[in-house]
Every structure is written in structure tokens, then in C-alpha cells.
Amino acid sequence: MDALELTRRGDELAKAGQHAAALDLYVRAAKAVETPAGELCLKIARAAQRVGKRTEAFAWLARVADVSRSFLDWSGAAALLTKLEVSGRPSARRSTRVALIGSYTTAQLGSMLRVAGLAEGIDIVLFEGGYGQYRQEIIDPDSAIYRFAPDFVVIAVHHGALELPTLSESPEEVLAAETARWQRLWQVLAERSGARVIQHNFAIPPEVPLGHLAARVSGSRYAMMQELNIRLGAAASDAVLIVDCERLASTFGKGAWFDSRYWNAAKQAVALDALPMLARHTVSVMAAALGLNRKCLVLDLDNTLWGGVVGEDGLSGIALGQGTPAAEAFVAFQDYILQLNEKGIILAVASKNNEADARAVFEHHPEMRIRLADLAAFFCNWDDKATNLRRIAEQLNLGLDALTVADDNPAERALVRAMLPEVDVIPLPEDPSGYVRALSDYLRFETAALTTEDRTRTQQYRMRSAASALAASAEGIEDFYRSLEMEARIAPFDEFHLPRIAQLINKTNQFNLTTRRYTPEELRALMRDPTVIHRYLKLRDRFGDHGLVSVLIARRAGTNLDIETWLMSCRVISRTVDAEMLAHLSELARQKGVDTIRGTYIPSARNAIVSEIYGKYGFVRVGSHDGATSWEYDLAGQGPIRNGFIANWSESDDAA
Amino acid sequence: MTLHDRVQDIVRTLFGDEEIVLDGSTVPADVPGWDSLAQVNVIFAVEEAFGIELGGDELSRFTTIGELESRIAAKLSEQGRDREAAT
Fold first, then answer.
1. Measured between alpha carbons, how far is residue A322 from residues A106, A302, A327 in Å?
2. Which chain B positions have a beta carbon within 8 Å of A107's beta carbon?
3. Is the pLDDT of residue A323 over 70?
């Protein structure tokens, strides 16, 4: 039976009230194809709900968001989600409180944000502001959004909310005033709630009375809207994220994005069928800020990075470069991948090939864009893909849920989905000319900020790989530590390092004792509090500069010091950086007259690695509650913790 | 599937309620939760599903399901004629 026939029979069973049997047929129909229709996923979710399989129902609802862009499918998913939530929230990677305020009817967008959130593992608790009330909601200190205490405030506005004249003789002043107006709103929000803002920028409508003249008159409303979008982006602080609606509307087609029938009748500023797209993009920006997006792109080689099979066609026989449309498409794909790498996406290769054949292409093919130096991990052998993906995750110290695979072969993709459901898979189209678009439509590489660390991340992961190789050869672990020639700079937080500190705090999952997240505003408040000790740690060694890799926040209470937050990038695990941080803290605490340092471990899905870390450094376990454990270090009795493997990175070197 | 069944399916999906039964004389007030916002959703979903564009005043006019269905049918045959004329 094919998928259509299975679905049809499932429908009959569902109609007859036999939901368990219908569910079975629907799932078989969905598994018969690589990308099942949204309608089918919705039927599965509905049948699962009827027979009480809630986890399955949530999972298939999430799938609707992945495969469908239809308003009806998404609305159906939202309705079912509401129904399911009556008996409990979905289990999610993160739960977050989102206030949605706007200048148009945003009820449908709100529903769809919840559906898009589900697909990213974000359980969104939503608050919707009154229709068109975005300003009042922000300005009024007693407004309901502040009582709601959101983590994010989505400002969904359209061009009608802009205070720009149709034609201005002094566009500079008008633009400065309008930019300042939005900045003030962001600032008020940040001060009153500490929430991060997700600002929709302004889609410019296609009706332009001035015609092409508008493009050369800087005081035209059309030109000012373009300029304003740029200024808002530049003015956005680290607590403000932008969703580029102008780009989305262009991509969607402005004629369709703006549907005046729906504006006139129902004050819908964005066409209803564009809302799934808008919701997906808004949530992808949110996921980036929460550190939930993917970190590593794992590439196949034959027919993915080049055309043909290098093992059979030979170095000169593969299609790459000029000559055929396919050969050019592969070059374009590689160029796009390198740009992802530049913004911090780590690249790796997992491919069934003779390693020597594969390496030769990277080293000797003149048209190759991606080079071995761009790759943080390289596994070419005849083992199955799942095994190689596990090796990549292990070598790079990433969770499997940080990996995304790009592979032209549907069978390999199916294998990955079946064996390693945590790994995400991009379904590349058959024609390589569509590869770039498939990758650009993939939203899980959205990133919240560009830091120096992002740009040099591959290099750092390579250094880590090199250091691992050294570990194997070094005689003893202590010799290994010494051979790294590590130097650390530990210092209080400052404004300059704040973006990286916030980024590290919000995306570190494994070496993270309490998994507390802080907004930049909350961090600034801590910096002003004299009872709080806040330190970052930067590390370099003979392989290079690792940048800012660890953060600790502790609070003094009398002669006690409580460690509220302690986390470290997994790139520098197992090289005494943790000991160095504690050594610094305990020495500082001693100087301040602290007797006891207290630490807490709060378990999460990812941080088992540090469950016993305090014990390792002489802390004594004094209590446990719901899996969380508390620890005390007798500083008065035992003296400061020591670490002899990391030298001080002195201030004077910094100018270099 | 008849046109009526498709319309009924759309309404059931939007409201998340498989028990909803519509007939020609059903008006929005008969269906719990069918307010002006839901009306917009229904009309849009119908447009999306049938690939037609209904008039702007359809969005706010509350009529019977039977009337809505005959307007859909009229639009569909109009489009059919347009297609024939174009070929």
C-alpha cells in the first residue's frame, strides 16, 4: 500500500472511532516518504491525542511546523496544541515566557509562535498584549506585561506604526527622532523587565506613490523606511534582537505579504499564509538567543560538495568548478558553507570514502573552496554514518543535538534520522543548484551575535583536536598539562566582555553547575552589587588563544560565599581550567575573610558531567534535594585550592 | 470528498474539534468560539484550500454555511470558465 492508500484507510478507521488502528496506518504512511505532508502529521497528532499518547502527539505537532507552510495546517496544530496543554505542558528543552505586543491583530501570530516554538523544543508560555497597544504596554509601568514577567518581548509591528511623513525636507532629523523613539521603548522594557526584545523591523509596502523617484529622494517615506531599518539594526543593543521582516516580505513576495482585503476587514498587516514563515523566523532568533541552535554542519562529500564519486571518477573526473551547471552549483554551495563557517558554524566531514582519495581533493583540487584547515573534524572511512557522527560529537565535545547533516543521499539521511534522532538532517534537493537555497532556508544555524570567538571557533576546535592528540602521546597527564603552556587571565566582568559573557552563560549546557541564564541587563545589575564576585576567565596556550571560556558568579553572605553560577566552555574541559577558577576564587575569598565556600549542583538534561565536580576539589556534600546537591568547602580549615598548571596571563602582554 | 465535507473539515481543523457537524443552515453563532477573528481564519483557510479569492466583505459577513458553499462553488466555476477562455 502506498502512502495515499494508507492515509485513506486511516481516515476510514478514524471516522469509525478506531483511533489506535488509524494512528498505526497514518504513521506507516508518514514513514513511507521522506517528508510527510503537514496534513498527515496533524492527523497523526490528533489520533495520538485521542488514544492518550501525548508525547507522540506533541512530537507530530512539532513535525507539522517542520514540513508545512500552510495556514490551515499551522492553525490546526495550534488548536490541538491548546487542547493538549490542558492536561500538561510538553516536555521541552527550554520553557520561556513570551509577551507579544504589536500594531496589528496578532492573535494568529501568537498561536503560530507556540507551534514554531514546539518544533525548536521551546515551550512558549504566551502573553498577548491588547490590539495595537504596543506603546501603552511598554510605557505604562502597571501594564500587564510587567506582571507577566516575560523572558522575551516580541514587538510585532508594521509600517503603519512608523512616525514618518510621506515626504520630509529634513530626513536626517526625522530619522534620528524615530530611531530614538524605538530605542527608548527598548530601554524602558529592559529596565522594567530585564526581558530581551525581539523587534520585527519594517516591511516596506510595494505601493510607492513617488515611483522610482522615491529611491533617489532621501526624504521620501520609502527611502526613510529603508534607512530606518538599517539604523534600528545598528542601534540594537545586545538585549535587542531583530527579525528582518523587510527581507522576509521580499522573499515571500510583497504582493502576497500585504493583502489589503485582510487589513481593511480585520487589521491583519501580514497575510495569514505568511505567518508560519514569520513565526518560524521569530522563533529561530529566540532559539539563537537561548543557545539552542545547531553548532556544527557535518558534510558528506561525493555529490554533496562535488559532483561524482572521487573514488571512481578520480581527482580530475569530479564535477567542480566551471563547465557544467552542476560543477558551478557545487562551488556556490561550498562558498555559502564557508560563509556560515565565518559566522561561527563549525564544519566537519563524515563520508564513506577512502581517506586518501578524499583528502587529495581538499589538498589538490584547484577549484575546491573548502580546505582541510576549515574542518574541525574529518572522518572518511567505511563505517556507517551514525558511528562517524558519534565520533565527531565526541572529538569536538559537542552533544549530538548540536550537529546537522547535509547529505545528498536519501538513504543516508534516513539512516541518521532512525539511528540518531538528536542529529538534524537537511534534505538536499536532487538538483545541486538548489543546495544553497536549501541551506539558507534552514533556520537552525541562526546566531545571536558575532563575536571574535565565533569567527575563530573552527580554529579553536582544531586546537582542541591537536591537544587531544598530544594527550595521547604525553606520558602522564601532568606532563600533558605542563606541555600545553597554558596562561589564564581572570578578571571581573566589564562592559567590553559582556556580550561574550552573556553568550557563554546562555549557551553553555554541559559544564554548567546551575544552568541559570542571565540577560545582559541582569548581568549589569550584578556588576553594580558590591556583595557579588563576578569573574571571567580567558585562556591561551601554545596552540593559540581560546578566548573567554569560563564564568563564575558568587555572592557573599557574612563569612559565607555562595557560588550561584559556574560554567565553562566544553572546548577546554579536562585541562585544569576549572581548578584555576576555584583557586582564584578561594584565594580572593580568603582575602575577604570568607570561612566557607558553598556550591550547588542542579541537574539538567546535559550537565551530568559536573555532578561530582565540587567533591573533586575538596568540597563536602551537605545536602540534596530533588537531585540537586549542595556542597561546602571549609576555607578557614583547608586554605585556598591550588592549581599549578596555568600561569598568570599578565596585563602587560595585553597590549600586544 | 464533497465541497461540504471539505468545508466541514476546514472548520474542524481550525477549531480543533472533530465533533463539529455543519449543515447548510448552520450560522457562525451555532459554533462555540466562531467570532469575528475565527471568521477571518475560516475565510482565509477556505481561500487557501480551494485556491480562490472571495470578496473583501465576505470576511466580515456572517452567513449560513450553505451560502458560503454556493459562493465557493460559483468562484470555482468562474475560474474554470476563465481557464477555458484562456486556452
1. 49, 17, 6
2. 37
3. yes
